[in-house]
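wait is this the right file?? whatever heres the structure
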């Protein structure tokens, strides 16, 4: 029987295989490597912050889509925390979107620059939308699994907290609160997402599917960085080699 040939991995081995996907995390992307070596110009940092804002505002929409697809009240009671983390609560905490706007200001971007999304590259938009659309259409457990890149996120937030004050002294360190807050939030979120994944992807086939889902999400993050690298490092934003509209009689 197929099940005999491919028995499920133990919980430990399954977790280990999920964690081993770290090698594809966007912390290894050349754009992030430049960032962490202090090699990005203010313009390049601003480009990253403005593009990442599209991810920030899409995350709670993605989480609301997961909740909308989830009939399990206990899961929804837990998952709603993520929306509050980003949107802020009714009273009190301002939330991650507000913290990202302050990061933008610390980098020299107006709030309106970020809200207008005028700097968001088409490929970044497509990649982020693919993530949101996945959460809309997939089984809620698959969508939970796709959040597991957060396993690797604390190290990248910590790297920014360590490196930015060293290399980018022109950015007010109060602007880095977003990364500080995410250190604990990401660890808490991922503990829950990991538990759901380990307990609900049980057969080998399901476990292999979980690895594919995680790879899809890694692809989303990597593709975002590719778009930014092309536009801001290689100086090839979309249509760079194209004559502006109206420049020929055509
Ligand atoms: O700065 C980063 O590199 C990074 C990566 C990720 C990630 O791995 O998806 C998230 C975040 N930050 C983040 O701040 C965040 O709130 C977040 C939510 C999620 C998710 O998939 O639900 N990923 C991430």
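ok assuming it is, sequence goes like this
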């Amino acid at each position: 029987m197929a099940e005999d040939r491919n028995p499920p991995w133990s919980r430990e081995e399954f977790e280990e295989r999920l964690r081993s996907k770290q090698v594809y995390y966007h912390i290894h992307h050349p754009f992030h490597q430049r960032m962490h070596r202090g090699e990005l110009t203010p313009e390049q940092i601003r480009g990253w912050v403005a593009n990442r804002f599209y991810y920030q505002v899409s995350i709670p929409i993605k989480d609301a889509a997961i909740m909308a697809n989830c009939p399990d009240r206990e899961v929804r009671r837990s998952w709603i925390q993520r929306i509050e983390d980003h949107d802020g609560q009714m009273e009190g905490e301002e939330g991650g979107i507000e913290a990202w706007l302050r990061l933008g200001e610390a980098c020299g971007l107006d709030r309106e620059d970020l809200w207008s999304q005028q700097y968001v590259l088409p490929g970044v938009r497509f990649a982020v939308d693919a993530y949101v659309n996945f959460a809309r259409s997939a089984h809620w457990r698959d969508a939970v699994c796709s959040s597991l890149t957060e396993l690797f996120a604390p190290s990248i937030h910590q790297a920014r907290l360590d490196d930015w004050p060293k290399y980018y002294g022109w950015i007010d360190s109060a602007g880095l609160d977003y990364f500080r807050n995410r250190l604990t939030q990401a660890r808490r979120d991922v503990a829950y997402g990991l538990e759901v994944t380990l307990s609900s992807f049980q057969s080998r086939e399901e476990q292999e599917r979980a690895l594919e889902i995680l790879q899809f999400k890694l692809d989303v993050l990597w593709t975002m960085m590719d778009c930014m690298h092309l536009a801001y490092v290689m100086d090839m934003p979309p249509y760079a080699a194209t004559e502006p509209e109206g420049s020929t009689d055509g």
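The longest helix spans residues 204-233. so i think its the right one actually
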